[in-house]
């Protein structure tokens, strides 16, 4: 857009810039040439000295359980004889054992009393996830244990109030892992000759096995002869071998042979093979399969074999210029944010927040404040679905809910110089599972960076004004199996907070035979199995208090008759709509970006009468955010949060999470069914929570071989002030310059105390030492000896 | 997504990572600890030494006219007496004068013959845009002049074949700029007392005027008494004043008083005032307006006055940490791309391309090759619309088409250390207008950078593999009036090319009275006038030749009965659809990103049978790409390219551009009406062109005060290989590391010759000197003296 009054050269030249009807600006008086750089010490300059070490203003009430807390909870539970617990290290399938202990996030009402009103610090409680195996009908159950520290006042009870099912129990239809492994080998033994012929390998349980056997996730329930049966479809995956054995390419090596098992009950002698599938032909018995295989017209498909192609090392002709080191960021003048390492509290410019880390969802942020006011109470991942499709039952039947595996356990140490700048500030994080406390060293990084474009610029005939865009990033990466999910929370000087997820790593792929409706062929006998990623975030915004409303401002076409026009005009208008009930609270981003979603406090108007708020909008990606399959037979009642782009619900202390790590055990009877959060409650000026999905439809092509790359596999949303302040917040930074000039040259360089990086940097000394990569520290919790916390675990560090 | 076989710690710890049915991977043999960093000199290493200076393999046939060429064209035209030209410097409204000369881009057929088949170099032709003022019906017309250099063989003719109207002529209904300026002052004089009362200022043409007067763009045609009349609505804008006069904030100072003029014809004594508007009340005569103003119930609205609020300097409390310099990127080991400065040819890794620069659209890229094969013949901006709406006729009537003003003239010098890294490679660019050749110094920058996240990563129980994401950016910024458009073309190691536009600068705003259906109130008497930005790009892709097809691959829900299932299953499928006719070629990005658009060569299959292609997808933003108003009364037949997200047409040498810089003169009778490109032609395996829109719906709020910021005002699309190669192209880089480890620690660090940045960098010495900002060099072209090219223009450099 342009106002034709701006001309940079003198009026003599102005005719060069536009057509005959350009309207020229009157020449303006220009500042005198001073020949000096004017460095302002802004009058409003703060006198507070900066320290990179901060002290949290309040105790971090969200912080993960300490090792001692976890140990005391575990010990307490072992003392409850009715639980009949066995130490996790000794427990078998028929024992009861503690799987996970973690913090029960304090109720928001209590937390706000503490944070805002000098109320008492909320009592700490733990959740203990216990697997009950000592029964014909094994199950898992969550218990709340506390208050902590454990004392005579401490009790435990089923954590039913945090569920939608009314019970924190869920059945485990697949408790006998050892039996199942043996079953798979036994079934394979009945067709060992066929497997050898078709797949050229063996799976017997020996060390030189060629195949790994696994299949659908979650398991299916199927009615057979009027009875609900537990069904598992399995397939054969080849192990990488030879020189490429180090590479984690097993998910590129599906072999195309499938078998269906009825694994109902705990007596594997009653389990049954219900059929075989090869080349898109189903054989309902092993005998039928064998007969077909023997017949002369049996069609054999190509082998999908490992090789150099599954490796991710450098390959192909490299570029001469690539012998030279590329540009790198340096931080010669020191860290510009502060961290309270003990309290996991961070301050950067006008932002502050607390960090925590959970087994299920990894890194989480609480009490994000901006200019002293809370804007987000809670920000963190809830669940990640990867839903596949294919002509074979294993791809068709796969719909991972990754919190089952957990984002905490797989959030490994980061590599400076690659994962994060070498000058980053690294933090550790700990989770507690199977009666071990495992500390990931340096698995969270915090750093400032210049994303390579400005925050603000403007030039005119008189001046240029330029403001740097320095952002602050909090990052962790969880490698949940074949995929590496990188999570960024990026804070910017304009008050925006961007949440980014990127995916790299190996795809899970399909055997190629007759799968071309479900993916591209990406190698000799391989199909890039199509799948949807949906990652759900909880975004509990509090804009100037908890009484907020989600409003939708639509840029809408309109036909309007104006007083100054004889005829109607086709134009557009801003239409304001309030989402006032949970009945209207399942939302999508509009076609062509026509809708803006704002969280506003309708009672807090700025001086111009506009409600103060924040906008939430997609910012990167665009390849999809919610599930294509709206009624998945795999996910059943566990996909309620993944059917729209975003949702808004009334905040309740009983509706803390949109999913549950145990839903995967029985997705038709989930512990948390997000759909049940919707019960027509008013969302008008009340405490609301947004549930926002990121993701992508991923149809892997040859460019995903061997690994998907982050550049085209990313998705993000951004929260930014909207009529919240009276101007652009980035005006507060010193990292800007104004250059006044005229035809005689530069007249004034105006700086604002924002120094450019200076000094001499030994870049060589900043090179990372990759030999420092360490791995995790594990502390055994039961039996626990605080004086020897590494009891029995040092060897596995 | 996860395959549950990956466990990073030893099997002892494995139970910590998942629930009871986790299926554990067989332990793998691990590489021996070598204690050495293995640096590979890849067997496929190229022996070609790298030089940052390249020699273009072919002459840049797209390069802008040289100053000599422009001068000779101008001289040639002045010799054509029937044109009756006056030197631009002397020309008035009643003269004929040359406005612009530029290159006529060679026909693609000729260009490919030269580039690919050693055909003759295409003859060079210029386009000359001439304003014919010496007539009662003034007009503009484009002529093609050539071949160049000018010789006896050179001729000129109307450039009709590059139009859809059949004529390169367009009427100019507003040729008398001087008369109009005087008209505005004369009209104002009739109500000077009212203006002083309502707006507290004057507009008389004197140096101390308070107001600038301008209005709608383009002009309207309105039928009055059966005759087409030329209509202009004007309003008053206040000049910034006092200490904030340097700031370009006039577009923040609309005053809320409007008048409508009939300016038909060239005799301003016949022009008429058709009414006034104030406070949303229309007065059809000046007398009516005066009477109302005199009446006691006349409502006066608040003044919109300048002040510190329009300045963009540092304001507000700054942060203690901001006294420290932020991180900065350095390039200690030298430039890794090569440039042929004379031919404007660039090579980076596996990419090469030619640059040109035009008056209308600024920077353009031609013949983008990837791994030696052309993938994009032409990539560049076509047009940028900014369409406003409002309760007043000026906002409602404003729909800028910015090529009218031109992106070339306003693509000013960039500031190292702010606009681009200090280590960037800068290029100059020249345009020719009003018989001047103006060279922007350092207005294009090229640089490598690390965008702050990896290209690839994967970790397993055995290893980490990490690849850097080093990108190469080509950038220019055009400040077209109040807005600064930043254009990036970003090349990445995975073969992707991203086109990004960002907007900063001042908004054009509206007076606040009764405008709240069209924008937020953003200051005392100011509304942030809502508007749509639509920027159209030509993307002429050539995938392995010119026979290409656009295909749409849909991720579609499906209900399927599989041979292995008793019941149908709700699932999804990849549906492949070909866009085979221009009848189906107006396209939008699907809701939830469900469609992938691919340009493929259906006859060139990869070894797995998939057609080789490139995907095109939105990558940033998401706030809209096409016009909300589908039938704008302002744009009429000139908005054809802006009604959908993307279009595909058959390539024709006569359909070079989707818009024309002169369409703005008469948008109802445009020289190029993009809709006319659509005439049912086959798009099946033929040379196709994509026309892709970026943009946003911009409803400015207080955060746009004083300037819109780039962070939330950006939009991009990315083109990336899709089944084009057999694997991820980034595997060719040396900038990767593999770390093999086990419970005993790191066993092997494998590098690939990709050095980390090294050496000692004097960061202080890299600080930019803002006093070096220079501005432009202008060379007068007529009368032209090659020995004294700065003839009469030195003073304005």
UniProtKB/TrEMBL annotation, chains A, B:
PTM notes: Topaquinone (TPQ) is generated by copper-dependent autoxidation of a specific tyrosyl residue.
GO molecular function: copper ion binding; primary methylamine oxidase activity; quinone binding
Domain DUF1965: 250-316
UniProt cofactor note: Contains 1 topaquinone per subunit.
Limits of the Copper amine oxidase catalytic domain: 329-729
Domain Copper amine oxidase N2-terminal span(s) in chain numbering: 72-151
GO cellular component terms given for this protein: plasma membrane
Cofactor: Cu cation
Signal peptide limits: 1-18
EC class of the enzyme, as a word: oxidoreductase
Active site, renumbered: 402 (proton acceptor), 483 (schiff-base intermediate with substrate)
EC numbers on record: 1.4.3.-
Source superkingdom: Eukaryota
Family recorded in the similarity comment: Belongs to the copper/topaquinone oxidase family.
Protein known as: Amine oxidase
Organism: Mycena venus
Record lineage: Eukaryota, Fungi, Dikarya, Basidiomycota, Agaricomycotina
């Amino acid at each position: 857009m342009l106002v034709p009054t701006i001309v940079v050269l003198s009026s003599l030249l102005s005719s060069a810039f536009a057509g005959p009807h350009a309207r020229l600006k009157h020449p303006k008086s220009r500042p005198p040439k001073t020949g000096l750089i004017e460095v302002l010490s802004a009058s409003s300059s703060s006198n507070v000295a900066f320290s990179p070490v901060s002290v949290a203003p309040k105790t971090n009430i969200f912080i993960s359980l300490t090792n001692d807390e976890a140990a005391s909870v575990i010990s307490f539970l072992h003392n409850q004889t009715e639980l009949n617990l066995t130490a996790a290290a000794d427990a078998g399938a028929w024992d009861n054992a503690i799987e996970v202990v973690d913090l029960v996030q304090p109720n928001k009402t209590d937390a706000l009393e503490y944070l805002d009103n000098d109320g008492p610090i909320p009592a700490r409680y733990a959740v203990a996830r216990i697997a009950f195996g000592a029964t014909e009908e094994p199950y898992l159950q969550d218990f709340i244990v506390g208050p902590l520290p454990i004392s005579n006042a401490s009790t435990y009870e089923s954590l039913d109030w945090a569920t939608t099912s009314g019970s924190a129990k869920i059945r485990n239809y697949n408790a006998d892992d050892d039996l199942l492994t043996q079953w798979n080998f036994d079934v394979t033994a009945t067709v060992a000759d066929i497997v050898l012929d078709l797949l050229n390998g063996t799976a017997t349980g020996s060390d030189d096995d060629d195949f790994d056997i696994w299949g659908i996730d979650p398991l299916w329930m199927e009615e057979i002869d009027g009875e609900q049966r537990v069904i598992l479809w399995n397939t054969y995956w080849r192990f990488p071998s030879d020189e490429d054995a180090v590479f984690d390419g097993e998910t590129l090596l599906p072999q195309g042979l499938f078998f269906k098992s009825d694994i109902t009950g705990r007596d594997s002698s009653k389990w049954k093979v219900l059929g075989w599938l090869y080349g898109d032909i189903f054989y309902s018995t092993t005998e039928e399969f064998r007969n077909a295989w023997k017949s002369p017209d049996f069609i054999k498909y190509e082998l999908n074999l490992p090789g150099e192609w599954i490796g991710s090392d450098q390959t192909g002709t490299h570029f001469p210029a690539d012998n030279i080191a590329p540009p790198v960021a340096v931080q010669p003048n020191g860290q510009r944010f502060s961290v309270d390492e003990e309290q996991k509290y961070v301050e950067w410019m006008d932002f502050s927040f607390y960090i925590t880390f959970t087994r299920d969802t990894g890194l989480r942020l609480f009490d994000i404040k901006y200019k002293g006011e809370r804007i987000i109470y809670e920000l963190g991942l809830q669940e990640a679905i990867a839903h596949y499709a294919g002509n074979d039952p294993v791809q068709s039947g796969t719909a991972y809910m990754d919190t089952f595996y957990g984002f905490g356990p797989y959030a490994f140490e980061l590599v400076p110089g690659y994962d994060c700048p070498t000058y980053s500030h690294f933090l550790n994080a700990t989770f507690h599972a199977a009666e071990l406390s495992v500390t990931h060293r340096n698995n969270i990084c915090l750093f400032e960076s210049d994303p390579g474009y400005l925050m603000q610029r403007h030039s005119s005939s008189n001046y240029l004004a330029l403001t740097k865009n320095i952002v602050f990033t909090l990052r962790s990466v969880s490698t949940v199996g074949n995929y590496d999910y990188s999570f960024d929370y990026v804070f910017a000087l304009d008050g925006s907070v961007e949440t980014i997820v990127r995916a790299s790593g190996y795809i899970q792929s399909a055997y190629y035979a007759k799968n071309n409706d479900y993916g591209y062929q990406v190698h000799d006998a391989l199909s890039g199995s199509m799948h949807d990623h949906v990652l759900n975030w909880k975004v509990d915004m509090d804009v100037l208090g908890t009484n907020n409303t989600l409003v939708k401002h639509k840029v809408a076409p309109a036909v309007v008759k104006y007083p100054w026009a004889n005829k109607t005009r086709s134009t557009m208008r801003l239409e304001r709509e309030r989402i006032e009930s949970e009945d209207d609270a399942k939302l999508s981003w509009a076609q062509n970006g026509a809708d803006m979603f704002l969280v506003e406090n309708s009672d807090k108007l700025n001086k111009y009468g506009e409600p103060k708020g924040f906008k939430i909008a997609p910012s990167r990606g665009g390849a999809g955010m919610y599930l294509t399959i709206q009624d998945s037979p795999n996910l059943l009642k566990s996909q309620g949060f993944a059917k729209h782009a975003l949702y808004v619900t009334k905040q309740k202390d009983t509706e803390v999470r949109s999913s549950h790590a145990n839903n995967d055990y029985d997705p038709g009877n989930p512990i948390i069914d997000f759909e049940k959060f919707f019960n027509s409650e008013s969302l008008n000026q009340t405490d609301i929570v947004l549930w926002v999905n990121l993701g992508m439809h991923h149809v892997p092509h040859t460019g995903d071989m061997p690994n998907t790359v982050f550049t085209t596999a990313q998705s993000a949303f951004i929260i930014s002030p909207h009529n919240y302040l009276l101007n652009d917040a980035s005006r507060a930074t010193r990292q800007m310059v104004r250059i006044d000039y005229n035809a005689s040259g530069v007249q004034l360089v105006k700086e604002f105390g924002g120094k450019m990086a200076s000094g001499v940097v030994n870049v060589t000394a900043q090179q990372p030492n990759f030999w420092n990569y360490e791995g995790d520290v594990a502390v055994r919790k039961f039996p626990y000896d605080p004086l020897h916390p590494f009891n029995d675990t040092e060897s596995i560090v």
